[in-house]
Amino acid sequence: MKNANLYSALCAAFPSNLGSCAVETDSGLCYSWQDLEEASAMVANMLESLDLPIGARIAVQVEKSVEALILYLATLRAAMVYVPLNTAYQSAEMAYFIGNATPAVVVCTGRNFGWLSKLAFKAGTGHVFTLNDDRTGSLLDRASQFPRSHAVRPVLPDALAAIIYTSGTTGRSKGAMLSHGNLLSNALVLKDYWGWRGAEEGGDVLLHALPIFHVHGLFVAIHGALINGSKMLWCARFDPQVVLGQLPRATVFMGVPTLYVRLLAEPGLNQSVVRNMRLFISGSAPLLLETFTQWEKRTGHTILERYGMSETVMLTSNPCRSEDGPRLGGTVGQPLPGVQLRILGEAGQALPVGAIGAIQVKGPGVFCGYWQMPEKTAEEFTPDGYFKTGDVGHIDAAGYVTIVGRSKDLIISGGYNVYPAEIEGYINALPGVAESAVVGVPDADFGEVGIAVVTAKSGATLDPAGILVTLKAMLANFKIPKRCVVVPELPRNAMGKVQKNLLRQQYQN
Ligand code: MLC
Ligand code: AMP
User: CA Rg, the chain, in Å?
Assistant: First the structure.
């Protein structure tokens, strides 16, 4: 069997000088390529010693650290399935993910061990380890007793590498299953398309400031650097001042639009700070034309905007090389090599150039389905094998795609997805609430934020601030609507459906 393990491909690209720095943290620590190889070998050996079946899920909710990256690499090496979870998730959300993924191993911060281990053991998880962002925890203690060498387990391309939870339109999250083949093909395409420079061409250096529990920070950014043997400057969290301080040492930066908005607010952002930069990439949410233009004016660099999803990894990109065409603000560029993208009308007919319709895609990065949800998977694919993205847009004669909206009821806030149906479910269950509608409105910092519009049961009095406080105790902080208003009734159309477009207009300021 030809080995298609993603780790083998990443490792094969490590530079010949394994002692050189692979990851430098913002606290000044340097991890060499050899450190990544040996530490991931130790953790992989430890995972294998647990006698888990191939494909066992390793669910991870930890703060960003290089050790968390090592755990991801170890999971790949051991042919187990990595299930990263946002650190903002609270107990009810975690109970759902653990119940759905049924992980054999859960790794959490020491701070959360008490409640999370109880929850995991109850759901049948056999092992719960801790991993903190200061290189402590039972995971590393255990792994330190294992050998520093490890034979990567060979896998076929369709073997699962990760399950990424994306919220569902009906409220419950769905786990998108991504294979080694999905992730490797996308990493290789982006390596070429974005012109990553190997060490012999001066070498790219990636400034990594995104969280590592979603596709953008974990796959696009990390795979990009590793498969090119490029060093990463690692920021534990996004702090514009720290990023500005590191920019002169970097050549590539990836961010969601909010990161660019916040950097633009820094007086210290100027052409001198970005003098060594080669490429600024934006994605995960729409980049406003205003941000694109201001960035060009202030820095002299044209942001490259790309488009992707948890279910598909990256789908389209503006060109990197000028000979491939200009980077057009407001567009997400052209389909990447290997991606077939089409725009369909409401009756399922192919639309002409420029017409707005549903975006559907096919390609090597498109996932293997939703974990244990065959009906949902079937619903999201067309009979001829295209995935329905839920995004709405058009494509021009030169092949540039523009996203104009979404058919899915989704708010993207600072690059995180918030599904109104989930929040409405929680609000509707509160005492005195008759019904609610959560809508997204424009926001200068997060791009879009949620507003909750609520009606009371007859005779009940609601306290909008109290509703938000209650929600905060139950849900991840980024899901909490930024405002709550109580109204006598929600606007409805003739079919009785709540007219969210009217609410969006009414509350947009
Ligand atoms: C934090 N808050 C948010 C928020 N992030 N609210 C809405 N949307 C968000 N994204 C809350 C906080 O809980 C806090 O509330 C208040 O807003 C202000 O917080 P902050 O200190 O300003 O937030 P900060 O910690 O700085 O985080 C902002 C951020 C972060 C932009 C750095 O959200 C972030 O890292 N976003 C990147 C998300 C990402 O990587 N997405 C990729 C998905 S992959 P309170 O009440 O507690 O004070 C994908 C596919 C693809 O989409 O194509 O890439
Ligand atoms: P996620 O489920 O977190 O992977 O989010 C995927 C969604 O993010 C896509 O379906 C799009 O709606 C959105 N998205 C990603 N990149 C862009 C972009 N460059 N412009 C607009 N929307 C984007």
Answer: 23
